């Protein structure tokens, strides 16, 4: 099995450096929790993954995550403005993101081993004025251990007016 083969490398990886998923939305996989549960508890601090919190998740997911012992999770967020958020994240609904985010933070406040929260925001013309306040909000009110601002390369599928 692919997961079992990958997990064999955990003893050799530094804390927070085992990319469980960083290139797509891992919470879309129905066996995410089962896959991570295969990692021995003593190696969970090596694992992180990235989520956009765009898919409605059950309460059990947030409770499990708060007790998981993972090193961190990255949460993608570009805006707290619902209309801009939905424009920047096609197919996503801000209401669902916000509900998930609130459930995540409530669970982490109660959990026995919550991961650190790292936030990733992409900087575009559409949201760059909001970024300083967003960073402050994430640090002061949303348990941010780290906030990273990234930018994209010029690529044809992103309109110049959006970049």
Automatic annotation (TrEMBL):
This is Molybdenum cofactor biosynthesis protein A. Transmembrane segments: none annotated.
């Amino acid at each position: 099995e692919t997961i079992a083969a990958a997990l064999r490398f955990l003893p050799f990886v530094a804390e927070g450096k085992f990319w469980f998923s960083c290139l797509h939305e891992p919470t879309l996989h129905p066996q995410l929790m089962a896959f991570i549960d295969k990692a021995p508890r003593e190696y969970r601090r090596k694992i992180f993954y990235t989520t956009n919190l765009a898919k409605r998740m059950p309460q059990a997911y947030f409770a499990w995550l708060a007790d998981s012992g993972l090193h961190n999770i990255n949460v993608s967020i570009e805006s707290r403005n619902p209309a801009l958020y939905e424009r920047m994240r096609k197919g996503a609904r801000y209401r669902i993101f916000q509900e998930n985010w609130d459930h995540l933070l409530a669970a982490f406040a109660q959990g026995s081993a919550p991961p650190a929260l790292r936030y990733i925001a992409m900087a575009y013309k559409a949201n760059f004025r909001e970024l300083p306040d967003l960073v402050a909000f994430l640090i002061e009110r949303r348990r941010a251990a780290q906030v990273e601002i990234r930018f994209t390369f010029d690529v044809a599928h992103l309109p110049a007016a959006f970049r």
